[in-house]
Amino acid sequence: MAPIPTPPAEPQDSPEGYVGLDATDAERLARQRGWSTVRSLPPGAIITMEYRVGRLNFEVRDGVVARAWKG
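Structure tokens predicted for Proteinase inhibitor I78 (71 residues):
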């Protein structure tokens, strides 16, 4: 039986720190801090609920991050 793979570690970063930032600047900063995937979404977007290690989600309103969460 093959061993279960160990997922990569997530950046030690708080998603709340991105709220209020310009979306473009927030995405650049998140990538610099080690997030492998950054997803910007409009308010109310329908998204899948699977959790992805290393992904940071932004809800963007008028070009500004209104909400941020992992996965």
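Helices lie at 23-32.
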